[in-house]
Amino acid sequence: MSTARNKRESDTGRGNINSVQLEGLALMKIIKHCHEEGAGNTEVAQGVLLGLVVDEKLEITNCFPFPRHADDVDEEDYQLEMMRHLRKVNVDHLSVGWYQSTQLGNFITTQLLDSQFSYQTSIEESVVLIYDPIKTARGFLSMKAYRLTPEAISTVQERDYTPEALKKMRLGFETLFQEIKLVIKNSHLVNTLLCELYEMMPGSEGKQFLDLGTMSTLDRQLRCLMEYVDDLSQEANKFNNFQRQNAKQLQDKHKFMQKRAAENAQRQSRGEPPLPEEDVSKQFKPIAPLPRLDAMITSGQISNYCKQISQFCSQSLGKLYVAKALQDKK
Amino acid sequence: MALNLVAKVHPVVFFTIVDSYERRNPDAHRVIGTLLGTIGVDKGAVEITNCFCVPHNESKEEVAVELDFAKDMYELHRKVNPGEVIVGWWATGHEITDHSLLIHDYYSRITTSPIHLTVDTTLHGGRMNIKGYVSASMGVPGRTPGTMFAPIPVEVISYAPEIVGTSVTQKSKYIRQRIVEPTTDLHQIFEATQNMETTLDALISYVDDVLSGKVTADNYIGRELTKMVNQVPKMSAHEFEEMLNTNMKDLLMVIYLSQLTKVNVSLNEKLTMLVATQ
Fold first, then answer.
1. Residue B148 burial (CB < 10 Å; 0-12/13-18/19+)?
2. Which part of the chain is the MPN domain (chain B) (predicted)?
3. What kind and span of H or E run contains A29?
4. Could you give the ipTM of this predicted complex?
5. Residue B186: predicted pLDDT
6. Would the pTM count as exceeding 0.90?
């Protein structure tokens, strides 16, 4: 059933988004919300994206934040109310996904997987925007759009994370999420506004990305990476244990079968009926295969960190060479 | 009446105003809305951090604002950020109309001395003028007092990430499709370096001109230049070389290790799959 639907989707191109176009307004709203939310605590800020789908492009034209303390507010009511009100002032009222802030890129989690899964199953075009306020404050705008791959969707649907299922779906940590190309677009009037703002904004700020002191950030990133590598090695240990147990059981079973076969041969030679084989499977219940979800997510996170770290290093190296050139000239 | 106020506005407010204007009803000539922000963090300044559009109807004779909408919307915004209060209202257009007075009166009832912000989205006079006002009553004692809108300075204030965000979106001005593609970190350094180079070139040619006597020296620029030169940390060539080398070694090591980790993780997955599905 689901494969049939997938096929139809790819035929019509529906639900198949290959680029995301973010309007300046939505970008600024996300930046503002995540900054204000991130100022006091370390919790993530989240919100809803509004926009529309044009062919295979998703246009995000507006957004609104989720309330800070979700316990005393009915989130669904709030969302509906907000969308109803925004609709009145002609804002696109199609919810096209959600955004979330992250710290140093530690966003690949089971929660993200589950939320994005429920979004994508209810609204096929949904994306999740991941915004990193810390990196942006350092001078590099970090906004990424992600979607679950069709393979990931059907796997989550089945809730089957056994190695066999994953192999069948050809799902690995690299194919769990797909990054969608993101561009920022402004209307002519906004461009006019930007000209005005350019004159009003202090020109000397926003150059902090040329900072040569890189060690603190690198240190933090590596620490996070180490933590996740530890997690992964635990997962690997678990898997090894499972493998050992499995092997042991197989061996035992094999021995038992051999014994039983010998016994049966004896009995046959004596002309007695052979012993039944059913109790074998009872005695050696197969061990449930380990779900690989956690390992997959951890691996995804690690590879994301690695990507970030190499990006960070390459830009730092670039800066060092610039500094060197300047020093030599002097 | 505090006439010496300064309105410090975050860029997101202008973005919202312009967007609201673009999404106005076909028959509407202007849009209005509520400004949210904080008063008194900084003495004599009102920080405007957020705003929303309020539907209204305007004809020659009368004006009708959907006040319930404004109230509901304010409540909704409060749930996200309880710190933001109503500090005034905004309108598009380049002038203050008679109706502005009525709307202003309404906002005066909600907050003391509301700020009125106008953004000229009709580009009157060729640019998007942004102006702020507060109202002051005037007139002769004993007669009906009038209201005057006194202009106040408007400044743009932003959080550090907001500066980065706007400077990235600035690039859409130079591209025909008005699209900015986020670049990699390294590319950004490259652009900044180019920028630096052009600035340095301009500076060098200026200094050369001064030295050759083509341009008269400006004391102010001279002082700023000396300040800048003094800011360069004093380092011997050897020290610098050492700093550079250690940093580079560190970075190269980290790159190597992170690549190694990546390969290992892939290998781990592949092998696990292979073993598990035998």
1. middle
2. 7-139
3. helix A24-40
4. 0.84
5. 82
6. no
